[in-house]
Specification:
By secondary structure, this protein is mainly beta. It is built from 6 helices and 28 strands.
């Protein structure tokens, strides 16, 4: 593989006492079912294939699942330069790297990812490596690398036209907007404390960035965790439009196409809220049932403060799909009444840690992080229709398209 693009100048060394303070504040943040082939729409020869990209956080790979047949098509190594990056860290960066790993309890190499609209390029936010990179999927070549500010790269989003890749710089209280053509910084915007999710509105006019506060602090010190906000910026200029303040950190969220309503999971809440984006207030809070295991947990033992972490909405906005992370289930809930249609229960400690709607809007894909599997749930029936093996610790999921050349570049051993 050709050598990656030159890294940016190293951050200046700081006194170890300063480094220790900084480090202490660093993150806290398949079987195919019968009839599946019948559901697969005929694909025109040469047309990109609809897939779900699955970021395997600890494995450092991205798995690709066929959105119609639920076949694991293979994986891509997103950290071919891992040892090089670790060796190049200066003392402050190495302290931060080890601290993030220690607080999180594991090493998250792939935090988020997206595939270019033409199905040829993979963009990855690489967690504790604190960078964003782009790969040509067919050849495996790293096209560019950008070091994000601070000490952790978090959730990301790709602009609708594919020209910008937005990454939350967790410890820097900002989101960085990168040009996908060359990995240069286009602009950045201020966020709340520990920026987390980045979500474009359906029409692309707005980008919502949500922050979770310093998750390494206990709930009793919630007031010291920093600003927990949703910051809405213009989807093209990235200038601020409106800021919404919350008592607790905003976890995964979905937004209706009219930009009037948000459904969000909040830190420590075993359920979700409905939020009026015009009035700027919570209109309904829905509490979901605890599992026996979850009922015995202390709130400070929730993974990164989140009881429930994973929210998606189907194509016609009539159903929500929510991961009960500590409860080991996923729930399908109908709008507008917010009645629960049904649950899919998983084994104890399966850790359902993310949900995403697949291409076409019919199925909800659920990451079972501790099982190294993805569960596919039918919105209409609230039933699981497939279970697909992935790489190590799947979490973030994104719908995408892949060219035939990109598919040929995948490692089939993940399938």
């Amino acid at each position: 593989m050709p050598a990656p693009a030159p890294r940016r100048p190293r951050r200046p060394l700081l006194p170890l006492s300063t480094a220790a303070v900084l480090a202490s504040l660093v993150l806290t943040c398949g079987t195919t079912p019968a009839g599946a082939a019948e559901r697969a729409a005929p694909r025109v020869a040469g047309a990109p294939r609809d897939v779900m990209a699955i970021g395997n956080g600890q494995g450092g790979t991205v798995s690709f699942i066929d959105a119609a047949t639920f076949e694991n098509l293979g994986s891509f190594d997103a950290v071919p330069d891992l040892e090089q990056r670790i060796d190049e860290m200066n003392p402050v960066e190495r302290i931060a790297y080890e601290t993030v790993n220690s607080i999180q309890g594991y090493r998250k190499l792939v935090d988020d990812m997206a595939v270019s609209p033409d199905g040829s390029t993979l963009y990855v936010s690489r967690g504790v490596l604190s960078d964003a990179v782009a790969f040509d999927l067919a050849s495996g070549t790293m096209l560019w690398r950008y070091e994000t500010a601070g000490f952790k790269a978090d959730h990301a989003a790709l602009s609708p036209d594919g020209s910008k890749f937005i990454v939350s710089a967790t410890t820097a209280k900002k989101a960085e907007v990168l040009n996908t053509a060359d990995g240069t910084l286009h602009t950045s915007f201020e966020t709340g404390t520990y920026p987390h999710g980045n979500d474009y509105s359906a029409d692309g006019s707005l980008l919502y960035n949500s922050s979770i506060g310093v998750t390494s602090m206990p709930k009793a010190l919630n007031g010291l965790k920093g600003a927990k906000q949703v910051v809405a910026v213009d989807g093209e200029t990235f200038e601020p439009v409106r800021t919404y303040d919350f008592e607790y950190g905003v976890r995964p969220a979905v937004f209706t196409a009219d930009n009037k309503t948000m459904y969000a999971q909040l830190s420590y809440l075993n359920g979700f809220v409905e939020y009026d984006l015009e009035a700027g207030e919570i209109t309904r809070t829905v509490e979901m049932p605890y599992s026996d295991k979850a009922a015995e947990l202390r709130e400070d033992d929730y993974p990164q403060n989140s009881a429930h972490h994973g929210m998606a909405m189907n194509a016609d906005e009539s159903k929500l799909c929510m991961a009960g992370t500590i409860d080991d289930y996923v729930a399908v809930v109908s709008r507008p009444g917010l009645e629960t249609d049904g649950y899919v229960h998983y084994g104890t400690d399966a850790l359902p840690y993310w949900t995403a709607t697949g291409p076409g809007g019919r199925y909800c894909f659920v990451s079972l992080s501790n099982e190294n599997e993805v569960s596919v749930v039918d919105y209409a029936t609230a039933k699981e229709v497939a279970r697909v093996p992935t790489g190590h610790f799947p979490q973030r999921e994104r719908p995408a398209k892949l060219t035939d050349e990109a598919l040929a570049g995948l490692d089939p051993s993940d399938g």
